[in-house]
UniProtKB/TrEMBL annotation:
The chain crosses the membrane at residues 36-54. It is found in: Cytoplasm; Endoplasmic reticulum membrane. InterPro entries: Selenoprotein_S (IPR009703). This is Selenoprotein S. GO terms for biological process: endoplasmic reticulum unfolded protein response; retrograde protein transport, ER to cytosol. Residues 108-187 are annotated as: Disordered.
Length: 187
């Protein structure tokens, strides 16, 4: 075999040559590490806040989109709801009217009772009886025309004894005693 034969690849010209990297000294990595060590917590908090803000905006947007179809319901549901509300209002009005009629009837009965009592009292007065139905003596009729009966005095114990007078100064053991004159330390 001949050693003179050299086998060359046909596509040697198309193989890209290795280009040396520009930042082989890791200087850019050091700058990035220093920036993260100074502002890393701030960046983390800002990213967290941004994520929460995006989630809240998505929730609000979806709630608004859900609210729009509910407000644009078909006419049959709206009319049913309005009819139900009108029926409820009508029932409450009927209950209120019934209660008012009952109250008015009670008031009328009370007025009728008062009027009847006044008529009875007037008739008893014209016949010479008191409002309690007792016959008045002729002397008491001449003495006064009032129909009030004096209340009998009840025998109650007084709250304080008759000799108690707070303005007289004999209030017991709580009397004012002025302090001694002179220095308090005595020295």
């Amino acid at each position: 075999m001949d050693d003179d034969v050299v086998i060359e690849d046909v596509d040697d010209a198309n193989i890209p040559q290795r280009i040396p990297l520009k930042n082989q000294d890791l200087g850019q990595l050091g700058f990035t590490a220093e920036f993260l060590s100074l502002y890393g917590w701030y960046l983390l908090a800002a990213a967290f806040t941004l994520i929460l803000l995006i989630q809240q905006l998505k929730k609000r947007r979806s709630a608004q989109q859900e609210a729009v179809p509910h407000t644009l319901l078909d006419a049959s549901l709206v009319t049913k709801r309005q009819e139900a509300m009108e029926a409820a209002r009508q029932r409450m009005q009927e209950e209120l009217d019934a209660k008012a009629a009952i109250f008015k009837e009670k008031q009328r009965q009370l007025e009728e009772e008062k009027r009847r009592q006044k008529i009875e009292e007037w008739e008893s007065m014209t016949q010479g009886r008191s409002s309690k139905g007792h016959k008045l003596s002729e002397g008491s009729e001449e003495a006064g025309s009032s129909t009030t009966v004096p209340k009998p005095k009840t025998d109650r114990k007084p709250l304080r004894s008759n000799d108690y007078n707070p303005l007289m100064g004999q209030g017991g053991s709580c009397t004012f005693r002025p302090g001694r004159r002179g220095p308090s330390a005595g020295g």
